[in-house]
Structure to design on (289 residues):
């Protein structure tokens, strides 16, 4: 009799353990209410060219990665960048950008907050975020995203063009060790690329005249075309770290990507070639034939 009771108790304990395991496995990543923050521009009036623009050179081939400006001065070009991607089959967009204002500890940061946009809530890919956090290559730091326009400017465009995608924004501090960036690149590279688009939100030459900006961009283009990620630190750009991760992601394993791009600067865009404080821009796509 006692033996039977022991069997019954053992069975109940095992059944409880199995039930707890599957319940834990299937429960949401977080039971907290999902907090939000606003896009940098949270009214449709700030995107006048997005819903009215039409593009004829939409990408039919798979685009794996891209470079886009976060300077609203060139809003029509940002709109065109995303509209050319509208036929891509994307589930998640990873956005790499500089931590313009955050100076705390750590090197690469993610957020747990969704974004409010004029087209609705743009949700985070919490599964991918959890995987990267678990690997140790990023950590949650909400302060790094407060007022961070390298991310906040992109989210409205992304939600408008890809209403069903999720995002994983990552901001990177300046001056960190290459080992950190390489580890992040490898983790991103291990993800399913077929449903993934990796973007670097970047502006290039800063605070120079038109002639200098054009010369610096020609040098930058040489590296961008060759996917020479070891030379990312030589490029005049506001986040060499973000560019390094993007190019390293493409390089591992080394593949024959092609680079389709548009390049301009503020002086050319507003047709004032005498402008003395110029920022330059690349809008580029890495794809395969």
């Amino acid at each position: 009799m006692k033996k039977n009771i022991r069997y019954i108790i053992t069975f109940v304990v095992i059944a409880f353990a199995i039930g707890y395991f599957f319940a834990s496995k299937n429960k949401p990543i977080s039971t907290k209410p999902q907090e939000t923050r606003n896009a940098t521009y949270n009214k449709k009036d700030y995107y006048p060219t997005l819903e009215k623009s039409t593009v004829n050179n939409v990408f039919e081939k798979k685009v794996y990665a891209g470079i886009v400006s976060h300077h609203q001065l060139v809003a029509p070009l940002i709109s065109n960048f995303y509209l050319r991607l509208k036929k891509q089959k994307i589930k998640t967009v990873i956005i790499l950008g500089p931590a313009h204002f955050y100076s705390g500890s750590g090197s690469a940061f993610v957020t747990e907050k969704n974004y409010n946009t004029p087209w609705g809530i743009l949700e985070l890919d919490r599964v991918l975020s959890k995987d990267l956090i678990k690997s140790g290559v990023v950590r949650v730091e909400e302060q790094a995203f407060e007022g961070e326009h390298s991310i906040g400017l992109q989210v409205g465009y992304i939600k408008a063009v890809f209403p069903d995608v999720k995002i994983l924004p990552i901001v990177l501090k300046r001056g960190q060790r290459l080992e950190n960036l390489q580890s992040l690149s490898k983790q991103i590279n291990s993800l399913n690329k077929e449903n993934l688009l990796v973007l670097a939100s970047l502006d290039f030459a800063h605070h120079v005249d038109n002639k200098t900006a054009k010369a610096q961009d020609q040098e930058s283009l040489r590296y961008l075309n060759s996917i020479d990620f070891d030379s990312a630190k030589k490029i005049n750009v506001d986040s060499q770290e973000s560019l390094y991760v993007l190019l390293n992601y493409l390089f591992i394993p080394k593949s024959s990507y092609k680079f389709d791009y548009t390049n301009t600067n503020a002086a050319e865009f507003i047709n004032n070639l005498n402008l003395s404080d110029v920022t330059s821009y690349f809008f580029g796509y890495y794809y395969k034939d």
